[in-house]
Amino acid sequence: MKFGKVEHPELIDFSFPQDHPDTEVVLSKYKEKGTESIYVGCAKWNRQDLKNFYPRGTKDELQYYASQFNCIELNATFYRIFPGEQYEKWYAKTPAGFKFFPKIAQDISHLRRLNDAVYPIVDRYLEVTSNLKEKLGTIFLQMHGNFGPKNWDRVVRFVEYWPKEFSLAIEFRHTDWFNDNTVANELYYLLEENNIANILVDTAGRRDLMHMRLTNDEAFIRYVGANHESDYARLDDWVDKLADWQEKGLNNIHFFVHQNMELESPLLSAYFIGKLNNRLGCDLKIPQTLVPPKTLF
Description:
It is built from ten helices and nine strands. It is of the alpha/beta class. The protein has a single domain (9-280), classed as TIM Barrel, CATH 3.20.20. The chain has helices spanning 21-28, 61-68, 84-93, 106-111, 119-129, 152-161, 176-179, 181-193, 230-248, 265-280; strands at residues 37-42, 71-74, 99-102, 139-142, 168-171, 197-198, 200-202, 218-225, 252-259. It comes from Pelagihabitans pacificus.
């Protein structure tokens, strides 16, 4: 993922902004519910992208990937709508408890930009995606960076149309969604009322997307490493933040590791999972990598 890439990450202030004041208010509504799911994964399973991960002789990349991770952020579904049979094959290759978090097709988000023509496409997308059955996690919609608040009516209609049996998260990239308090509050209210997660993107060149505003009890986080030693300290900060949010009522952690150049995403993931297990008392499998990850403890 090259989004938010900078030439000199050592110059970036990666410290977290203060939580939005309403995040704690939202989480407090779920405090008695208890932790439901913690999923950590990469964005793709392609061998050429995930260096230092696949053992020599690996025949099926997804099958091996799913033996090491409990989820995948399924970016492939952004580029085209696969036939239903493909989802059935993915389902069959993965173990019980594995989850797919697929991205909504670009025909919906980027090309047609939520206009009136997208709804038959949405129906087709959900029809085939539902073949993942209980392995289907939260579906996410990523809007183009130039999709701004002037398109508010399209967002409202899409949210109202979306079938509530499918969990949804949305990533907004245009700065005006967050810079104008009136616009931001209307957006947050819409997401809260419809139980939609407000995606957080942690990337070097777009610190404004660290709005720290949760809209339900799901932290859907897309973390983009900078291929720099600071990547590990940033993950440490996320462990602390998620522990804080969990104490306040966060029940679902869905964390996906990217890099500007996908060289060490499994290494970063292994490090993060080890730290998360220690801090939250969970028991996620730490992925095996051909190169040992940085010290976990």
